[in-house]
Amino acid sequence: MTIPRSHPRYTSLMTREKLVRAWKAGVAVPEGLIAHGRGEAFDYLFGEETSAPALVAEKAAAAFLVRARRPVVSVNGNVAALAAREVVHLAAAIPARVEVNLFHRSAGRVGRIARMLRQAGAREVLGARPDARIPRLDSERARVHKEGIYSADVVLVPLEDGDRAEALVRMHKVVISVDLNPLSRTTLTATVPVVDELTRALPNIEKFVKELHGDPKEADRIARTYDKAGNLRAVYSFMNWRLRGLARGARRRKR
Ligand code: PTJ
Question: What crossing angle do the helices spanning 198-213 and 52-67 adopt, rounded to 10°?
Fold first, then answer.
């Protein structure tokens, strides 16, 4: 289907098309299309822009990533479909390992996603031969690489499910999530929840990583003073402020 450039929701429709194509190619799963719809609905509430509190969390995420000894970026079907290049650029900037980790795991999907990441420039992609398990996690997401997610100290988990985020936190890892749902279990359990859209969040984190590489003291200060509860409060206040603004506008329109 051709989407006219003049359509007011051109970008959003193109993103949807990208995901549908990824589903047809066996990269994304149908459940991923549902997850995308949920994310998009939340993004409307944020005005489809990075909020100030999200930017604070993105800088904190970058601080933890540059200080990490064994950072890993976890990639699933939606993330590969929407942001393969952004993942590769961010991982190179940190530098971090990249590991494919799927909820709806099949060897074919892991292979296709790894190929996509390599086509986007990744030199090494883990995920095809998991040799360890995340303890107390029953889903396929428990299957990880010993030299990747299993032994990582900081894991970036975009579009994660809450169970694995919880399990990774139990393993005492710093878990950085990217999830537009400010109420999800992932957001509530991650060490650094980034409540922003994936393709905006990853380049922002990359920019901060590059800045903080030159200023390790500032990276230490940010990681030390980051306040998750305060940041989430700011996210909720931002949403409240947006909705109140919309309600005032609606009242004026009605008069
Ligand atoms: O590829 P697989 O098999 O690993 O499966 C991937 C999905 C996404 C289906 C799986 O991880 C899943 O079921 O995730 P959930 O539990 O639906 O959570 C995904 C979260 O990501 C939801 O809270 C959405 O609001 C959020 N989300 C969706 N699209 C975006 C997003 N957040 C940021 N940016 C997006 N583009």
Answer: 50
Q: pTM for this structure? A: 0.96
Instruction: Please tell me if the CB atom of residue 103 comes closer than 6 angstroms to any atom of ligand 1.
Output: yes
As a whole number of angstroms, the distance between CA 110 and CA 128 comes to 6
Whether residue 33 has its Cβ less than 6 Å from ligand 1:
no
Q: What is the number of alpha carbons within 13 Å of residue 93 lying toward its C-beta? A: 22
Alpha-carbon distance of 159 to 202, in angstroms, equals 12
Nearest CA to ligand 1 atom 27: 39
How far apart CA 79 and CA 29 sit, in angstroms, is: 12
pLDDT per residue, tens digit, the chain (255 aa), is 688 888 878 888 899 999 999 999 999 999 999 999 999 999 999 999 999 999 999 999 999 999 999 999 999 999 999 999 999 999 999 999 999 999 999 999 999 999 999 999 999 999 999 999 999 999 999 999 999 999 999 999 999 889 999 999 999 999 999 999 999 999 999 999 999 999 999 999 999 999 999 999 999 999 999 999 999 999 999 999 999 999 998 777 776
Distance 78 CA to ligand 1 centre (A): 7
